[in-house]
Task: structure prediction
Amino acid sequence: MKDLLGKKFKCNYCKDIHKVEIEDIRYGNLDEFCKILDRNTNYKKLLILCDNITWEVAGKKIKENIKNNISIPLILKPKNEKRVTANYFYIEEIKKNIEKIDIILTVGSGTITDMGKFVGDKYKIPVISFPTAPSMNGYTSPVCAYIKDGVKITIPVKPCKYVYIDENIICNAPIELIKSGFADSLAKSFANADWKISSIITGEKFCTLPFEVVSSAEKKYINKGSLILKRDKKVIKNLMDGLNLGGISMIIAGSSSPASGGEHLISHFLDMYACQRNIEPFSYHGLQVGTGIFLSALIYENIKKISCDEISKKLNKIKIDYDEKLNELIYLFPSSEKKLKEIFENKIKITKKLREKLPEKWSEIKNSVCNMVYSSSKIKNYFKKVSCPLHLKEICDNKSLINKAIKLSRFIRERIVIFDIADEIGLLNELTEEYLKM
Ligand SMILES: [Zn+2]
Ligand SMILES: [Zn+2]
Result:
């Protein structure tokens, strides 16, 4: 990781120049961190951004320990929900509090970090991240996800300048958040495979480095779920490294492609559903993503078995009624109609291209992606050790919604994912039926 931080270099794989803007990721403890902040004369006025929970976990103590510089806490409190989620109305609240601020210090996990990055990017204020849980890869990623008018939006933002991790704090985070980070980190092989397919079909850029960067880190914790449950410090630190490298892999790629594929759309779909009905989220981000990973694994497994002759036949046999799909989506997410229509239109264009190219590119696709991903039985084994939900029914008791999430989530983002191929060849319908009986 140290070799990448703050570096600009020519890539051995894609020959482009990559630049990792994060200056440093350091482990230590809260007191040392406050001393570092206090010594830095550029940080005259700090905004300590946290929510009601992370204020108690670390925010308050950081505020007390900063002596030389001015620190202003902004403690977000849940509005009509149990915990603060990344909703645009909190971002507006942060915007009102950043006058003359030199640095935003995010004390929290995904929600707080993403919203801090959003505001920091908009007002050109550097962001320092103080993670409270190894729950996702946003501490180092160059994107932020939030909900506005009921739609889940992911936009590019400047990554944090500096990440400072107190090992004791992340090891003592709620276990569901740690599990969430574990599951989220396992998305990368599937996301990279989806990205590779997309590059084969559309000609968009693909680089192997993001996948390389995360693969070796993953080996240090993927099979150690039982130690994670015991809060083993070394393994949790390895998980945190894996997550942070996942974020860096997105900086290298210049997009969320290497960390967020079709598996993430399942999670975004559930978030949108909960948000538009004013109900609590079904689960944490990573745990929702985990169920998407298992689905992706099932699809990839089946894709492997389809020959080049069969693919054309299957494509010809299936005629999807796209208008009906769009109507179903709008019925589910009425307040996002305009945005969904826009995305849908582009998705249909790209799907046409996919259908055209699939027969000639089929062997290339199979050869290059099928061994990038884990089998469903491996995923099952890894998830079991850390008791992560595998099936959507473990986090959602609405069977019809599960059915819709699997069949429609591909239409909430333009990028090609494995669910697109599965749907266009009729595999998705077959698999969903089996899946619902599991
Ligand atoms: Zn490259
Ligand atoms: Zn994620």
Notes: The chain has two domains: 8-172, 182-437. The beta strands are 8-10, 17-19, 24-28, 45-51, 70-76, 103-108, 127-131, 143-148, 151-156, 162-166. The mean pLDDT is 95. Residues 213 and 245 are 7 Å apart (CA to CA).
